[in-house]
Amino acid sequence: MTQRLLTHLRHVDLAVPDYEAQLDFYRGLWGLVPVAQDPGISFLAAEGSPEHYVVRLRRAEEKRLDLLSFGAATRADVDTLAERLLARSVPLISRPDTLQTPGGGYGFRFFDIDGRTVEVSTQVEARRHRKIEEKESIPVRLSHVVVNSPDIAATRAWYERHLDFALSDAIGSPHTGDVMNFMRISSQHHSLGIAAGPHTSVHHVSFEMRGLDEFMRGTGRLLRAGAHMTWGPGRHLAGDNTFSYFLDPHGNTLEYTTEMETLDEDTWHPHQYTFMDDDVSDQWGTANPMTEVIAKEQHNDVDRGVFVAPPV
């Protein structure tokens, strides 16, 4: 098995025009907690996670993905990855150095093949967190992120070659080719998903709940509050995780999930699923059918941050 330099997904950073509405949604309804704020920027943590924050919100004129952040084990691993990317002509935004964001640490940023900003860091201060109790319908941690790519094969190959991601499973058909690749950097089935889309954008950001009861309670809490649920509740086949998808105030798709599959990486072989099989989308058969309207919502708006480094 490849000795990876990445360990896990740390946080997802979003920029939005209506910052106050977005902040109210994430901290009030979605269940995250602010840990640091400056004018026009907030850092939000999940109560059950040691990560200093899992979502950063920033006020901006245009909606965009600011960055995806992944962890590494040591400074040496961060330096090794930076040198590897430089040697392969991957455009770096910054060189490894002390980070100025809450929790500190040591890291650097670069562009992926589609122009997303990616950050890799280590030695970030762990946050004091707590056990999520029975019936608490708030996120334990950030689970995974799925991005849209206009060339799913090229994006998958880039993450495999440069960041040592491995394919866990794929969904597609003989007529369309792959429409979703589930990629891992640990025994968790996926930390990153790559979806075939018409443009570069965020497909969805997923948050882990304590268990099935808390997952359903969270789904119900958002429905009672009038949040727009696009798809769910159900249970996917790839990853075997549950899903309820909602839209935040700026049209980004968010997911409550639980019970993501853990793999034996030494023996695992990727499945090639077809979306023509209803069980692939939803094993339970409880979710509303996937439609073109839902798919379009998950395509999201064109990301205006492609190959433009965020100002913070």
Write the layout of secondary structure elements.
Elements: E1 8-16, H1 19-30, E2 33-38, E3 41-45, E4 55-59, E5 64-71, H2 75-87, E6 97-98, E7 106-111, E8 117-122, E9 141-149, H3 152-163, E10 166-173, E11 177-184, E12 192-196, E13 201-208, H4 212-224, E14 229-235, E15 242-247, E16 253-257, E17 271-274, H5 278-281, H6 292-299
Parallel strand pairs: 1-4, 5-8, 9-12, 10-17, 13-16
Antiparallel strand pairs: 1-5, 2-3, 3-4, 6-7, 7-8, 9-13, 10-11, 11-12, 14-15, 15-16
Residues in helix, %: 10-25%
Strand order of the biggest β-sheet: 14-15-16-13-9-12-11-10-17
Counted by DSSP, the helix tally is: 6
- Number of self-contained structural domains: 2
Q: What CATH architecture of the largest domain do you see?
A: Roll
Largest sheet: 9 strands, mixed
Domain VOC: 8-123, 141-259
InterPro entries: Glyas_Bleomycin-R_OHBP_Dase, Glyas_Fos-R_dOase_dom, MMCE/EMCE_epimerase, VOC_core
Keywords: Metal-binding
Pfam families: Glyoxalase
Structure description:
The chain is of the alpha/beta class. The protein folds into 2 domains: 8-122, 2,3-Dihydroxybiphenyl 1,2-Dioxygenase, domain 1 (Roll), CATH 3.10.180; 141-299, 2,3-Dihydroxybiphenyl 1,2-Dioxygenase, domain 1 (Roll). It has 6 helices and 17 strands. The chain has a 9-stranded mixed β-sheet. Strands 2-3-4-1-5-8-7-6 form an 8-stranded mixed β-sheet, covered by helices on one side. It is globular. It comes from Streptomyces malaysiensis. Keywords: Metal-binding. One of its GO terms (biological process) is L-methylmalonyl-CoA metabolic process.
